[in-house]
Design goal:
This protein is α/β, with parallel strands linked by helices and about 290 residues long. α1 runs parallel beside α2. The strands form 4 sheets. The protein has an 8-stranded mixed sheet, sandwiched between helices. Strands 2-3-4-5-6 form a 5-stranded mixed sheet, with no helix packed on it. Strands 7-8 form a two-stranded antiparallel ribbon. The two termini are about 20 Å apart. It has 2 domains: about 70 residues, Immunoglobulin-like (Sandwich); about 190 residues, Vaccinia Virus protein VP39 (Rossmann fold), CATH 3.40.50.150.
């Protein structure tokens, strides 16, 4: 497992009873996590002094129960990057800290390249991966179907001092955008893709991961330049295992571009136990 253990402003303090106890800067949150099926003793006193807790509803969704003064948004840092954090609907905060291992992978390649690389971030969300690539020196195309998420990503770029870097911010359906880029003949040296299990595009287009992912990777791989460097595919969908994603990238990309594919779970260290909580899966194609 690849472990995101360099975050200073984020800490997974403890896990028990279907919940995470987390520190986001100075703010303590409790959020549900279906993978936490153990009921270990809650020794950390912050279980009982948290700022807020997300309570699931039996009817679907849920709500935040606030116990202390909780700002509308606050800021956390990762290396040179600054991210705005908010308590959103369906338990999210705008940052997936376990993804830092993928940011680090991409930035290492970008910094060690002998030329400026062009990267496209599909389903770019609040832009954490986009900012990491910009900070490393790449040109980035950031695409997400949500206008609010793209604006959040732009705000993060401003907070990180990267607003003047070479980036395109696109509110668009990712499949339609990739097709247009192919017609325009545009190419990229790196592709980052973190597709949702289910979603809708800005025009109401329905996305179901298991039905779309293989054909979309076939399509997106056509955007890779002749000297492409990497393709990062991440998933939080239980049915899409690391090995399945490895198989897809190996069958679609390797025959044309060579290179190799690796795959693994990604996770976060748990302070109270010293163990690691799995938080998704990633497969990566890399040019040798």
């Amino acid at each position: 497992m690849r472990v995101a253990d360099r975050f200073k402003d984020y800490e997974l303090l403890d896990t028990s009873g279907g919940e995470r106890l987390e520190r986001w800067g100075d703010i303590i949150l409790i959020r549900p996590d279906p993978q936490i099926i153990w009921n270990t003793e809650k020794k950390d006193k912050r279980w009982y002094t948290a700022h807020a807790r997300y309570i699931r509803s039996q009817k679907g969704g849920g709500r935040w129960e606030v116990y202390k003064n909780l700002p509308d948004r606050w800021n956390i840092k990762y290396d040179n990057l600054s991210f705005n954090v908010r308590t959103m609907g369906f338990k999210h905060t705008g940052v997936f800290p376990e993804q830092a291992v993928n940011w680090d992978f991409a930035t290492d390649i970008i910094r060690n390249s002998d030329r400026e690389l062009s990267v496209i971030n599909l389903f770019g969300y609040t832009g954490c991966a986009t900012l990491a690539c910009l900070d490393a020196g790449a040109r980035v195309c950031h695409v997400d179907a949500s206008k609010g998420m793209v604006q959040w990503a732009r705000d993060n770029a401003q907070e990180s001092g990267l607003a003047d870097k070479p980036v395109r911010w696109l509110v668009d359906d990712c499949i339609k955008f990739v097709k247009r880029e192919l017609r325009r003949g545009n190419k990229y040296d790196g592709i980052i893709m973190d597709p949702p299990s289910y979603g809708r595009g800005p025009g109401g287009e329905v996305w179901k991961l298991e039905e779309e992912i293989y054909s979309f990777i076939e399509l997106s791989a056509q955007l890779l330049s002749d000297d492409a460097k990497f393709f990062i595919l991440n998933s939080y969908t239980a049915g899409l295992s690391p090995s399945v994603m490895h198989y897809i990238l190996s069958s679609v990309i390797v025959p044309k571009f060579g290179g190799r594919v690796t795959c693994d779970e990604i996770g976060l260290p748990v302070t109270s136990t010293g163990l690691v909580l799995p938080c998704g899966s990633t497969a990566i194609w890399q040019k040798d």
